[in-house]
Write a structure and sequence with these properties.
By secondary structure, the protein is of the alpha+beta class. 38% of the residues lie in helices and 20% in strands. It binds one RNA strand through helix 7, strand 11, helix 10, strand 15 and helix 11.
RNA sequence: GCGAAAGUGGCGGAACUGGCAGACGCGCCGGACUUAGGAUCCGGUGGGGCAACCCGUGCGGGUUCGACUCCCGCCUUUCGCACCA
């Protein structure tokens, strides 16, 4: 009996895989490719079993596809720029580069000990100049195409930390770090014009057949397409006009006032021209100081004030008051709306509060709304009333005609608006990619020439957490010469959002050492798209949307010819401990290293795959891991027990009679091959793949016990002979299949067992086992017989029996007869399965 | 509030297109081996009943020969969206 020593095997095989460059691949158009990718990691320092699960799922797929004959690209890398390293530097003084590189080294060791089949020679870290050079290259391409531009915008500002916060760092309007209330602040920022691709990004969601619906829905909501109209309301007595956007032009005859966002350009104009500018400006300031998050989410009381001016409703030609309202968003549409209180709940509340006029212009059907009795807006579509020549039209028709007429009269046009906004990429931070732009007093904004890339991040910078860009305090970085005129100039001191890094890293993996281009077209054309991509649902919008955007930009730049980067997407569930997400502060982190030293990588891998389907959340369980370990021991003992027999026979099918047990084991073997293959490749139900393997092992134990030698637990007979050639053959077939099929889950053990079975050259010396439908076909089937919907009997009959014969046998069965006593058979249904359903009364 | 998904033994979960509910594992119970076992192997394990049998997939209806699966209504949970004009 050979002892199972998982830690020894882990080390042995991991070293051999590295030495043999087992998982390294080259572009080879002659071979079918498979690109398997898991979302790369932020190097926080420690992998926990939640990470482990994601990487395992990809590894199962990569290893299976490799054995199925594909040229498999399975790389890994590090999303290495980011705030945490810089924040740590502010507190501890350790330079972000130092802490990041040491974290990467530690986590890499952890992943390697799990035996994940990565092409480590392609490893990338986004904080290296050889990588971020191409962030800058891409930025310049975007700038040339008008897709990168600079403008003033409002950002989240934490007054205590004196720093800008990303949207996702603002939790319920508070700073995630210090809990201060976040303010709005205006800054000059660089933006990527993702809105230029809004329509395409939305439309192409329908082509993502192998994405979870949920993710597509979230992206659809995020893009938020609305069809409507832009209309001009001239300001009475001036040449000014208020532009509004509405999706309900059919209600325009009920538009009894106009609302402006506090930030709207006309507001300041009106204030300046008013008798008391200070009073109006104070009001505006008050609105703008309101909690930004609350304003965006509607958690504020609606308030407004009258500007004293009026505008002309272009359809009624009547003057309506212009108010400023705190709930109107400057960043959506035109920053101004026509208010239709009768048919919009928000406008209704506002009108009631300030006693503004309400006019019903739609009859939705049912009771007719009246201004006197209504308690909420009637927002449904219906029939237009009191709407001049449009009265009597249905909403849909009204909308079409009104837009047509507005265009004819040059007072408006049909327009599509998106909720999606351009992507602000400037960060007033150090640990990121420097934005490759130069400001010259003479020439203005000048891009850094391509041959001067990368603009390297200087090593020295102070981390005070003051909020201004740390690069600004490095004179040798800031001061430069203008590439255009050669005069003195200043560099941009902001760095890029780290989402830029992750928006194209999957392309870099195709050609990770290219120094001239982000990647060569030839390599990307071969490997892309990513065939299988897995990661957390928390990236459903940002990362996945940005990546889809970048892929299109690179297409338009001419580097690639595809639209969508990720063919099949799997969003894996989290690993919980005591019902909560693992985190250091909760003290419920399960450390993979301690599991590895106790059970080895294979047991851990098998457990996280077996406990639930990949998409589901799982609750960590030590006893579950223990069970998986026991199963591996069971496999080990079984294979070890039969090694000499398996080695002594070959793949020649012996001539002669088979016993029922032998036939049954062959059937089980082939059924298992079929199920495991489909479970991995098609359904991604890795838990049921493992249970099929367990069933095969259980059957092999039972089969072994019935042989002359006996089973693995009967140590005393372990050297006994088998005698029958057929028995040796089915054992060989079953054990070979078992070792092959289990190898994606437990690769270290499988390699060792494969070697013990007499094979040199590793598991790839033999292809994935193939399913034989003839062998798997049963000779007899058990057919349930239902009487009035309840199973009353089971018949064992030869497979392939005709329906007529089957029906006759079912009705003749004594148990069935008993249940039919005193009843008349009304109908007999022969269902696939097969199954017989008798209706009697 | 709107939208989506889910609800199955003591627990994690199976049941693929409407066809044998509870595969597989954990836990528990019993047995074998053993000085001993928390190792290993074998057996049992949804509830009720001595049994034939009855009940059972959140609740209430419906469609069907047949429903965990489809339809309608409700309850609960989770997730997403939420003043976007």
């Amino acid at each position: 009996m050979t002892e199972y020593r998982p830690q020894h095997l882990d080390k042995k095989w991991q070293e051999r895989w590295t030495t043999d460059r087992e998982f390294e691949v080259e572009t080879d158009p002659a071979k079918p490719k498979y690109y398997c990718l898991e979302m790369f990691a932020y190097p926080s320092g420690h992998a926990h079993v939640g990470h482990v699960r994601n990487y395992m799922i990809g590894d199962i797929m990569a290893r299976t596809k490799r054995m199925r004959g594909y040229n498999v690209l399975h790389p890994f890398g590090w999303d290495a720029f980011g705030l945490p390293a810089e924040n740590a530097a502010i507190q501890t003084g350790m330079h972000p580069e130092e802490s990041t590189l040491s974290n990467i080294a530690h986590m890499k060791g952890q992943l390697q000990r799990l035996g994940i089949s990565y092409a480590w020679e392609r490893e990338i870290a986004t904080c290296g100049p050889e990588y971020y050079k191409f962030n800058q290259w891409l930025f310049l391409k975007m700038y040339e195409r008008g897709l990168a531009y600079r403008r003033r915008s409002t950002v989240n500002w934490c007054p205590k930390d004196n720093t800008v916060l990303a949207n996702e760092q603002v939790i319920d309007g508070l700073c995630w770090r210090c809990g201060s209330s976040v303010e709005a602040r205006d800054l000059e920022q660089w933006f990527f014009r993702i809105t230029a691709y809004a329509e395409e990004l939305l439309a192409a969601l329908g082509t993502l057949q192998e994405w979870p619906d949920k993710v597509a829905v979230m992206q659809r909501n995020w893009i938020g397409r609305s069809e409507g109209a832009r209309l001009t309301f001239p300001v009475s007595g001036t040449a000014d006009a208020v532009e509004i956007f509405t999706t309900r032009i059919d209600t325009i005859f009920g538009a009894t006032f106009v609302l402006l966002a506090p930030e709207h350009a006309l507001v300041e104009r009106f204030a300046a021209e008013s008798p008391d500018p200070a009073a109006l400006r104070a009001k505006v300031r008050q609105f703008r100081a309101l909690d930004r998050e609350a304003r965006l989410t509607g958690a504020i009381e609606k308030e407004g004030f009258d500007t004293g001016r009026t505008a002309i409703n272009p359809f009624t030609t009547k003057a309506v008051p212009i108010w400023v309202a705190n709930f109107v968003l400057a960043e959506y549409g035109t920053g101004a709306i026509m208010a239709v209180p009768a048919h919009d709940q928000r406008d209704y509340e506002f009108a009631r509060k300030y006693s503004l006029p309400i006019r019903v212009v739609i009859h939705p059907g049912g009771t007719v709304p009246s201004v006197e009795t209504m308690t909420e807006a009637a927002s449904a579509y219906g029939t237009l009333v009191d709407s001049g020549e449009y009265s009597g039209l249905e909403s849909a028709t009204g909308i079409t005609r009104m837009i047509r007429d507005a265009e004819a009269r040059d007072i408006g046009k049909g327009e599509v608006q998106y909720r999606l906004k351009d992507w602000g990429v400037s960060r007033q931070r150090y640990w990121g990619t420097p934005i490759p732009m130069i400001y010259c007093q003479r020439d203005g904004i000048v891009p850094v020439p391509y041959d001067q890339l990368p603009v390297e991040l200087p090593k020295v910078a102070q981390f005070t957490g003051r909020g201004d860009s740390p690069l600004g305090s490095v004179p040798e970085f800031v001061n430069c010469t203008c590439p255009s005129c050669g005069g003195p100039a200043r560099r941009e001191t902001d760095t890029m959002d780290t989402f830029v890094d992750s928006s194209w890293y999957f392309l870099r993996f195709c050609d990770p050492t290219n120094t001239e281009l982000p990647f060569a077209t030839r390599d990307a054309a071969y490997w892309m798209p990513v065939d299988f991509y897995s990661g957390g649902i928390e990236h459903a919008i940002l990362h996945l949307l940005y990546s889809r955007f970048f892929t299109r930009v690179l297409r338009d730049v001419g580097l690639i010819a595809m639209d969508e980067p990720f063919k099949r997407l799997l969003t894996q569930g989290m690993v919980l401990k005591d019902g909560a997400v693992m985190s250091k502060s909760k003290g419920n982190v399960v450390d993979p290293d301690s599991m590895l030293s106790k059970y080895g990588a294979d047991a851990l891998r098998l457990y996280v795959m077996f406990v639930a389907p990949p998409e589901k959340e799982i609750e960590w369980s030590d006893s579950g891991l223990e069970g998986s370990f026991r199963f591996l021991l069971r496999v080990w003992r079984l294979v070890d027990h039969w090694t000499d027999v398996v080695r002594a026979v070959d793949s020649t099918v012996p001539v002669g009679e088979w016993t029922d047990a032998e036939k049954a084991l062959r059937r089980r073997t082939h059924e298992t091959i079929k199920r495991v293959t489909a479970d991995i490749e098609e359904r991604m139900h890795l838990n049921t793949a493992v249970s099929s393997l367990m069933e095969l092992v259980n059957e092999l134990y039972a089969f072994s016990d019935a042989t002359p030698r006996g089973g693995p637990s009967r140590v005393d007979t372990a050297t006994g002979v088998v005698g029958r050639a057929q028995t040796g053959f089915v054992l060989r077939e079953a054990i070979h299949a078992l070792v092959m099929l289990i190898s994606p889950f437990a690769p270290h053990m499988a390699e060792e067992l494969w070697e013990m079975l007499g094979h040199a050259g590793g598991l790839r010396s033999e292809p994935w086992p193939s399913y034989d439908a003839v062998v798997a076909a049963p000779e007899e089937v058990v057919v349930p017989v239902q009487i009035n919907g309840k199973v009353r009997a089971r018949l064992t009959v030869p497979a392939g029996l005709s329906e007529k014969e089957l029906e006759a046998r079912a009705l003749a069965d004594s148990t069935v007869q008993g249940h039919l006593a005193g009843k008349t058979v009304r109908k007999v249904v022969m269902a696939k399965g097969p199954l017989v359903s008798v209706v009697a009364s």
